[in-house]
Amino acid sequence: MSVASAPKNIFQVGLKLWLILLMVQLSNMLFGMTITIANVVLPQIRGTMSVSQDEASWSITLNLVAAAVATPLTGWLAARLGWRALMFGTVLGFTISSFLCAIAPNLESLILFRIGQGIFGAPIMPLGQAIILSSFPRHLQPTAIVLWGVGAVFGPVVGPVIGSIMAELYDWRAAFFILVPVGILTLACTWFALSGHNRGERSNFDWVGFFALSLAIIALQLIFDRGHRLDWFDSHIITFLTIIGLLSFWVFLVHCFFAKNPFVDLRIFLDRNFSLGTFISFVMGTLAFTGLVLFPSLLHDLREYPDSLIGILVGSRGFGNWIAFLVIIPLTKSAPRASLSAGLLIQAYASFMMAQFDINLTNFDIIWSNVLLGFGQSIAFTPMAILAFATMPKNKITEGTTIFTLMRNFGSSIFISLSVLVLLRSTSQNYSSISENLSLFHKGHNIPPLPSIWKPDDLTGLFQLSGEIIRQASMIGYINSFHLMAYAALLAAPLAMFMRLPQKETKV
Q1: Whose CA is closest to 157, among 317, 285, 307, 326?
Q2: S-S: 37 plus which of 163, 173, 179, 329, CB 3.0-4.6 Å?
Q3: Any alpha helices (H) in 328-458, and if so which ranges?
Q4: Which long-range CB contacts under 8 A does 39-44 form with residues at least 24 apart?
């Protein structure tokens, strides 16, 4: 589309494009909420269904695995079914799965319906991004991506807030019920917004590539999620999964190089912008979700905060997102590479601030650092999405957004697992180092400044002192995890400067 015939600003676009924007916002928020909402209500699920933490966590793990496996299907399904049929079907399936989660009678059925959420929800973000990039002229894409990102950013942030409030007022089932009306509204928008995109192209499906990639994804996801529970390579299960994952990925790569119509066209990685953007997307995934997982457990276990307050404090990141939306459009248009680098550096600084926390952290500390993290996240998100596809042909955008989203989700799940590993290992090591000299006969424990309740002269005092050591050791573990977030952001920040700028649209 030429600049002369295109609308000059977002307010001049037609009703159809506005419906598309509303549709992708709602669908993104819908999918984003379910990622974090389950983490908040997991303790209630454990209590209601009388299951262990490890058993209940399968509802999180298998949801992520299902989403990871289904995400690569987006490109082929979009070509086969068309935008309208795919988006309507995936939102419908997701909404039904959410309703079934809310009425699940036992853990087994809940896990099954959570898998359904993952499968149906997987195409939502890559398809929405592809629709935005294909429907809007290049000069309006930064604005459109910002509006699309409202749902992508706020879904994971709003999820803990709404989930904690609904769980506290009613129970955990209400947190899933709240997704249903949002899904129905999204279905209505989808039906009208994409009425002109209901026909797709027929294409052959590469079953070998799909199954090889799926096995590799499943193995990798389970390794990082279950590795710390099973003591990594001391476990035969983890060793077996590693072998299966490596062999499957090798088969996938070889097949893609020699197949006539491979499941993933690896030539898209020859595009420098896309390759760098995909890696940065991986890092952004780590920064987007790791804090949302770490903070609830930190505040609940170490500070004994109520669920409703935890949701509000963690949700303060959304305020930073809103502030960024006021400046991100002109920044993306004038200096997208600098904006992307600055956003990553801001997130690095916010993570370093979190790494300075101690056991006596205040609400202001939590709010300020999360606001800054949210601000940096939004500053980086839009230019990242624009630059990654700036030099890619339109016929490759849907496939590209699929891989882009997959890597972002991988980044979040893998980094969450690594952060949990760092937390557990650090807690164990620091507990040992702090308590190794703890003894009833150690004179240093009887110094006057030591609170009397910590005097290890009886079992009660010794138990209370041990509990405080666990708190301090755990806090060091959280600090180490925040350091990991900061280093990841610092690593990715310089890469933005090597990306090519979008070409100017030609005037006619």
Answers
A1: 317
A2: 163
A3: 328-334, 336-354, 363-388, 397-435
A4: 39/160, 39/292, 39/293, 39/296, 40/159, 40/160, 40/163, 40/164, 40/167, 40/175, 40/296, 40/307, 40/310, 40/311, 41/163, 41/167, 41/172, 41/175, 44/167, 44/171, 44/172
Triad 153, 307, 41: Cα angle to 5°? 70
C-alpha 86, offset from chain centre: 22
The span from the CA of 131 to the CA of 440, in Å, is 68
Alpha-carbon radius of gyration of the chain: 24
Tell me how many degrees the CA angle 18-22-28 measures, rounded to the nearest 5.
Answer: 145
Got the DSSP string for 414-425? Answer: HHHHHHHHHHHH
Domain of 270: which CATH number? 1.20.1250.20
Number of helices followed by number of strands (H, E) in the chain:
20, 0
Show the domain range for 413: 265-432+453-502
Residue 363 vs residues 73, 297, 309, 350: alpha-carbon distances, Å: 43, 15, 10, 15
The amino acid occupying position 314 is V
Placement of tokens 């499906």 in the chain: 205
Residue 507 is predicted with a pLDDT of 47
At 32-83, the pLDDT tens digits run 787 777 777 777 888 888 887 667 778 877 887 888 888 888 888 888 888 8
Block residue for tokens 């992708």 = 24
Distance CA 506, CA 16 (A): 25
Residue at which a domain ends, from 262, 277, 297: 262
Percent helix, percent strand, percent coil in the chain, to nearest 5: 80, 0, 20
Full-model pTM: 0.79
| CB-based contact 212:248 (threshold 8 Å) | yes
- 131-177 per-position pLDDT tens digit: 888 888 877 777 787 777 777 777 777 777 777 777 777 888 888 88
Q: Which residue has the tokens 């490109």?
A: 75
| Digit-coded pLDDT (tens) for 340-371 | 999 999 999 999 999 898 888 888 888 999 89
- Is residue 448 scored above 50 in pLDDT? no
Do 332 and 272 sit in the same domain of this protein? yes
DSSP H helices, 194-271, are 207-226, 236-258
Query: Is 285:64 a contact under the CB 8 Å cutoff?
Result: no
Residue 508 in domain:
no
